[in-house]
Each structure stands twice: as structure tokens, then as C-alpha cells.
Automatic annotation (TrEMBL):
Protein name, as recorded: STAS/SEC14 domain-containing protein
Highest taxon, organism lineage: Bacteria
Length: 135
């Protein structure tokens, strides 16, 4: 598998596995809104430029997102991703129920706004998330 790191922002890493049609994103710590916008915009750019169809985002370390950050994700981030070729996004979410619900609410809101033009599912295990992407 040919994997290359495209972006490493310190708090966010993006890798591309072209042979697997996959972009992997990993939040390495909780972030503020500016960092979320920077990381989310980089993911959009990578998906746009590579034209890959599957993405996995490991968000297990995103534990305390402000309402402004969640609103940007729901109203802008998912709309950006919908402008790419992405078909499936698997999110690996924290085991903590409150953090998981907060991240789930972002997807629910994006879907209600009609800006999500791809499948999004949340998982607590990267292995199960990858299995879904490959199904």
C-alpha cells in the first residue's frame, strides 16, 4: 500500500492511500475553531485534488468543541466535502458518550441543512470503520 503524508499540522495529519482510494485524517488533540477550519479546509483540498472517494477521520481526541466550531462543521465543512468526489466518510468518534453525541449532532445538522451529498457513518473502532468503507 502506497501511503504518503500530505499534511501534518501538528494537531491534524492527513495521509493518502491512492491504491485503496482512501484519505486518512487524524486529529491528534482537541482543537479550537480556527484549527478546525484549517484542518477541515486542508482535508477538502486533499480530497478535491486527489479525487479519492473514501475518507476515514479519527476524531477520538476531539472532546470539547465549541458551538461555533460545530456550526462551522455542520454548515460549511460538509458542504465543502460535498464539492469533492468523496462518496463515504467514516468517522471514528470518542468512546465518551457526551463527546460522541456532540459529534453526531454535527452530522445530523448537516444532513438537515441538505449539505451532505455523501454517506457518513460514525464508529468507535477504526477497524470497523475501514471495513465499512471497503464494503
Amino acid at each position: 500500500m502506497n501511503t504518503s503524508t500530505i499534511i501534518d499540522l501538528g494537531f491534524y495529519k492527513i495521509e493518502v492511500e491512492e491504491s485503496s482510494n482512501l484519505v486518512k485524517a487524524d486529529w491528534t488533540r482537541s482543537v479550537n475553531k480556527d484549527e478546525m477550519v484549517a484542518g477541515g479546509t486542508k482535508l477538502y483540498e486533499v480530497l478535491r485534488d486527489t479525487k479519492l472517494e473514501n475518507a476515514i477521520a479519527d476524531a477520538r481526541k476531539l472532546t470539547a468543541l465549541s458551538s461555533e466550531t460545530k456550526e462551522w462543521m455542520a454548515s460549511k465543512f460538509y458542504e465543502l466535502l460535498s464539492q469533492t468526489n468523496v462518496k463515504k466518510v467514516a468517522r471514528v468518534v470518542p468512546n465518551d458518550v457526551f463527546s460522541r453525541i456532540a459529534l453526531e449532532s454535527v452530522v445530523t445538522r448537516a444532513e438537515a441543512l441538505g449539505v451532505t451529498k455523501f454517506e457518513v457513518k460514525s464508529f468507535t473502532s477504526p477497524t470497523i470503520a475501514l471495513a465499512w468503507l471497503n464494503s
